[in-house]
Amino acid sequence: MTNEWDAGRLNSDLDGVGLDTLAVRAGQRRTPEAEHGEPLFFTSSYVFRSAADAAACFAGEVPGNVYSRYTNPTVRTFEERIAALEGAEQAVATASGMAAILAMVMSLCSAGDHILVSRSVFGATVSLFDKYFKRFGVEVDYVPLTDYEAWRAAFKANTRLVFVESPSNPLAELVDIARLAELCHAKGALLAVDNCFCTPVLQQPLALGADLVIHSATKYIDGQGRCLGGVVAGRSEHMKEVVGFLRTAGPTLSPFNAWVFLKGLETLRLRMQAHCASAQALAEWLEQQPGVQKVFYAGLPSHPQHDLARRQQKAFGAVLSFEVAGGKEGAWRFIDATRLISITANLGDSKSTITHPATTTHGRLSPEDRARAGISDSLVRIAVGLEELDDLKADLARGLAAL
Ligand SMILES: *Cc1c(COP(=O)(O)O)cnc(C)c1O
Questions:
Q1: Longest dimension (CA), the chain
Q2: CB 360 within 8 A of CB 169
Q3: Does residue 148 carry a pLDDT above 90?
Q4: Which of 14, 136, 362, 382 makes a 20 to 30 Å CA pair with 400?
Q5: 131 and 114 in one domain?
Q6: Which ligand 1 atom lies nearest to the CA of residue 196?
Q7: How many separate domains does the chain show?
Q8: CA distances (Å), 141 to each of 153, 160, 170, 174, 194, in order?
Q9: Which CATH number fits the domain that encloses residue 385?
Q10: What is the domain range of residue 316?
Q11: In this structure, are 203 and 315 located in the same domain?
């Protein structure tokens, strides 16, 4: 067998297949071993048949792998599969979700550029923009996610990038991605959407007009809390720049993690369906409970953007939050009374999690900023996992009984 071996019928024909099929099969190119699963290329470097071969490959005259900071076949399979699911020309994998945001900004923005960020993004994302990017002469402003007039007014002549999370954490607010994309493009800016909470199964931001998609694969793409990783996806002209930065700076994805994520993608839609069904049932149930003052979940008709969520997403996600009686003490008593759900701020895991945003994920904000973001001391957030619905309900009932 030679390296030019023709895989023939061993590789699937994916012309015109659906999302579920892509999630299971896209990106795989079988080796001469004819393995059925995706091979894990756990290697830092690659060998050549001759000095001339090495020279041609280094010069980029022939395709081939040189070093795993540049390319790795397992990572490439993951990148091709996630690109297929997001409908992207190209996807690039990174060592974490934060590394994806870092790589996007480092490769597409320069000193003197202005970036707009939605106000309620992930805490580390705010630190990355405020503490680091600003140091290099990038201007950053924050805009309330749902205020289109504020978005319109916030653009400047040098606005290069707009970065949003939709739905937001922990209040599940949404932005109309198509509407914001139109505004960004009229102003000559790129729109990037952090699609971590929805995954491509529930929402495809590129199809709605966004230019770039960011993932923390650590969450639902892995789905079982095993490893960290991230993705930037979009048009090849932009991905070429992102690849250049990653190959030089090095926050690339480990092939082992890529292999775990490939297994995660195979069950992503089934898991998301189960996560969302349980979250919907719990949200409806919580809304009926006397100790619960308010539930924030876009699947509820009481949610101000329920109609937008129905239009924009295939389902409503599995992160929901609610306010309980008794302020911070009430929220802590509720959390401490649970026995099954894990007290942790993580999400996108088969194990359900519960957290008090005001003193954990959003604890670094000043009380005024927290109030402005709508995160009260009585707010509790749960990320609904895959346990039996009745067991989750019984655990939350323990919380309610403790109020
Ligand atoms: C977790 C998370 C990130 C960061 O991802 P890491 O993989 O932890 O680096 C970014 N955005 C959102 C919405 C997240 O939930």
A1: 76
A2: no
A3: yes
A4: 362
A5: yes
A6: 13
A7: 2
A8: 11, 12, 21, 19, 17
A9: 3.90.1150.10
A10: 269-402
A11: no
Residue type for 206, please?
L
Same domain, 281 and 203: no
Ligand 1 lined by 170 (C-beta under 6 Å):
no
Residues 154 and 215 placed together within one structural domain of the fold: yes
For residue 123, is it within any domain? yes
Collect all residues with Cβ–Cβ distance below 8 Å to 358 and sequence separation of at least 6.
328, 331, 370, 375, 376, 377, 379
Tell whether ligand 1 has an atom less than 6 A from the beta carbon of residue 165.
yes
Confidence (pTM): 0.95
Domain-ending residue, one of 266, 299, 319: 266
User: What is the 118 CA–ligand 1 centroid distance (Å)?
Assistant: 15
What average pLDDT does range 157-184 have in this prediction? Answer: 97
Q: Ligand 1 centre from 98 Cα, in Å? A: 6
Distances (CA, A) of 129 to 35, 86, 138, 213, 220: 44, 25, 9, 17, 24
Tens of pLDDT along 219-247?
999 999 999 999 999 999 999 999 999 99
d(CA 213, CA 83) in angstroms, rounded, equals: 10
Distance (Å, whole) CA 289 – CA 292: 6
CB 93 within 8 A of CB 247: no
Residue closest to 172 by CA, chosen among 395, 383, 329: 383
- Integer Cα distance of 119 and 141 in angstroms: 9
Give the chain's length: 403
CATH number at residue 144: 3.40.640.10
Q: How far is the CA of 224 from the centre of ligand 1 (A)?
A: 15
Strands 90-94, 230-234: pairing kind: antiparallel
